[in-house]
Please model this.
Amino acid sequence: MLWWSNCGEAIVVKASRRGPASIIEPVDLGTAALVPDRDRPGGWTLLVDGVPQSHVDLGDPTYLEFEYMRRLASVIDVAAPTGSPLRVLHLGGGALTLPRYLEATRPKSRQRVVERDAALIALVRRVLPLPRGADLRVRVADARAAVETARDSTFDLVIADVYRAAQMPSTVASVEFAAHIARILRPGGLYAVNVADLPPLAFSRIQAATLRTAFPDVCVIAEAGTLRGRRYGNVVLAAATRPDGLPTERLAAAGRRDAFPARLLHGDSLDRFIAGSRPMTDADAQDSPKPPPGLLT
Model:
């Protein structure tokens, strides 16, 4: 039995005596492991250097094992009327969990994925084939560089889940980067970003302040214990290009329905969360905190 923890979520991955075996291969940025999920036929967990990156269920792409993925999916769900296709940019590919979810829930969406690790994407495509007919292209590139060169008003939704060695790099955490994201979104577009943070969530507070420099409407979604600073965990931030552009009631309801219920901070409650935190610029940007020692081993 193999055990890992993923940003506050305990995950048990068991090698089964039946069914497919685990696949472990070197990739460009480390060592990748694809481990079959004994409890879900067609389910796989992707780990890079022992850190869980993604879980995919080939039989049911709408099943999302990781808590933070469900938070990000809730933003996908409110980005347009049910079933309507979207133009989406995914920053960070992993096992392409959310692109699969989006194709299943919003067929004919135009999706573009930016991922730095070419060998990882090749492995994922070989072992976990993508849905046939999906308008989904993967570009091997740095996320910041890809965003800076993207055309204005191109996407309805941008989703960022960019990590290097379990840390969000400073290049995608600054005021300047947020301004580029706002620029490439269409009017009414949404941005969602996953942040892994330590108590007292100083990095998440700074990120909320940073997004407010580029977006007129911002919210934070996270499990209540994480927000109270009890544990290392995932914080999802969502932002809209228009004032009052976030359907916060629907996002809050989705968070309450989750197996690990989430709270949504917006308006006055977000003001209190940010408190005196200052936006982060390229000149002073830092990576997100490292996980606590032993958490991912």
Observations:
- The mean pLDDT is 93.
